[in-house]
UniProtKB/TrEMBL annotation:
Residues that span the membrane, as ranges: 6-29, 73-94, 106-127, 147-168, 250-268, 288-308, 320-339, 359-378, 390-411
Protein role: Involved in cellular auxin homeostasis by regulating auxin metabolism. Regulates intracellular auxin accumulation at the endoplasmic reticulum and thus auxin availability for nuclear auxin signaling.
UniProt KW Metal-binding keyword: no
Main subcellular localisation: endoplasmic reticulum
InterPro entries: Mem_transp_PIN-like, PILS1/3/4/5/7
Gene Ontology terms describing biological process: auxin-activated signaling pathway; endoplasmic reticulum to cytosol auxin transport
Membrane topology according to the record: Multi-pass membrane protein
Any one Gene Ontology cellular component term annotated for this protein: endoplasmic reticulum membrane
Name of this chain's protein: Auxin efflux carrier family protein
Domain of life from the UniProt record: Eukaryota
Alphabetical UniProt keywords: Auxin signaling pathway, Endoplasmic reticulum, Membrane, Transmembrane, Transmembrane helix, Transport
Matches recorded under Pfam families: Mem_trans
Organism per entry: Fraxinus pennsylvanica
Family as reported in the entry's similarity comment: Belongs to the auxin efflux carrier (TC 2.A.69.2) family.
């Protein structure tokens, strides 16, 4: 296929996303107010608790078998690599731009976690149905492509709510503690200053403090701290980490849907009951597919409504936004080509153009929208997150089109 044909194939899905996103933004403006704040919140709950689990479970149940699991074993590692490299690059962005402490978790999260579910679920079927697609029969391509996208969404949700969630939570709690300490020190200093008589000098107040410290030094100078064994230190660190982590978020509805899809797909007796037109209770699978079909338009409309908040702006540094954009749309896709092609060369990935395309595309996606939910939950950079998402998703139309064209050329 020629480059222009590949560009046309890759641009159509992005244009569809832009049109539905624009409609969501239009419905969310105050003059229309069909998709206002409360409406988006309720619709988001329906998507989170109903549509997404149904979509993931139904598509995984259709496509997951023991053979496909063996073929797709590299995908969880590929997604983990995107999180690790993105976190490292996010830390570099923080060091270079000197971002405020309360944005550290947000910057690392935006660089680490891409939109591994919704964007792939929108893009992959659209690419399969385009005339001139290099992936063969559209129906077969859509079936397996949705399986890849659903697995990506499930794994991404696990990493997102176990890793990024706790990074943002710890970062926000650390910042709130620093604010409390600053407020306490200000209150203490003001109280001490109010206790000093107006006619006394500062030297008279300091001298007793110095003498008391000097008396205390000989008593504590030669005290030895008990040494803790290395294994006990590791045990204490792990216990502290488990206490700080919110493990309940690992079992989000999407994760439960993924587990259900794996059970149905991998257990032959259950699969025969649910999957296929001749299955005795195939109506359950058909109902799940019907509910899952509502996820894509609903999520895209919510995306458009949420991006509208970014137009109001915030005091975030432009260098921070630029750094995140460079990480997500330049550094990660280039490293992704090296990693996926290297895995293919060493036999870690089987020869499958659609599977390779999904693996490559996982490195070029905009930040996950759930990061905005996390920032709202902890009150850490909510307005800044809206601006970051606005610019990242506006530029995603160009970046995804160009990278999708290149990826199609590489795998075709």
């Amino acid at each position: 296929m020629g480059f222009l044909n590949l560009f046309a194939v890759s641009s159509m899905p992005v244009l569809k996303v832009l049109l539905v996103t624009g409609l969501g933004s239009y419905l969310a403006i105050e003059r229309i107010n069909i998709l206002g704040g409360d409406a988006r919140k309720h619709l988001n709950n329906i998507v989170f608790f109903v549509f997404n689990p149904a979509l993931i479970s139904s598509n995984l149940a259709k496509t997951i078998t023991y053979e496909s699991m063996v073929q797709m074993w590299f995908m969880p590692f590929n997604i983990l690599i995107t999180f690790i490299i993105g976190s490292a690059l996010g830390w570099v962005v923080i060091q270079i731009t000197r971002a405020p402490p309360h944005l550290h978790g947000l910057v690392i999260g935006c660089c680490a976690a891409g939109n591994l579910g919704n964007m792939l679920i929108i893009i992959i079927p659209a690419v399969c149905k385009e005339r001139g697609s290099p992936f063969g029969d559209p129906d077969v391509c859509s079936e397996y492509g949705m399986g890849y996208a659903s697995l990506s969404m499930a794994i991404g949700a696990i990493y997102l709510w176990s890793y990024v969630y706790n990074i943002i939570r710890i970062s926000s709690s650390r910042n709130s503690k620093e604010v409390e300490i600053d407020d306490l020190s200000i209150t203490k200093s003001s109280a001490e200053s109010s206790m000093v008589p107006s006619g006394s000098s500062s030297i008279e107040v300091v001298e007793p403090l110095l003498s008391s410290n000097q008396l205390a030094l000989p008593q504590t100078r030669f005290e030895e701290k008990p040494q803790v064994p290395f294994l006990d230190k590791i045990k204490q660190y792990l216990e502290m980490l488990l206490q700080k982590m919110n493990l309940k978020m690992l079992f989000a509805p999407s994760t439960i849907g993924a587990i259900a899809g794996f059970v149905v797909g991998l257990v032959p007796q259950i699969r025969k009951l649910l999957i296929g037109d001749t299955a005795p209770v195939h109506v359950i699978q058909d109902t799940a597919l019907l509910l899952g079909d509502g996820s894509i338009p609903a999520v895209t409309l919510i995306l458009g409504g949420n991006l509208l908040k970014g137009l109001k702006g915030s005091g975030i540094q432009k260098s921070v936004i630029l750094g995140i954009i460079i990480v997500r749309y330049i550094a990660l896709p280039l490293l992704g080509i090296v990693i996926v092609k290297g895995a293919l060369r060493f036999g870690l990935v089987h020869q499958n153009p659609l599977y390779e395309f999904v693996l490559l595309l996982q490195f070029a996606l905009p930040p996950a929208m759930n990061i905005g939910t996390m920032s709202q939950l902890f009150g850490a950079g909510e307005s800044e997150c809206s601006v970051i998402m606005l610019w990242c998703y506006v530029l995603a139309s160009l970046a995804l089109t160009l990278w999708s064209t290149l990826f199609l050329w590489l795998v075709a």
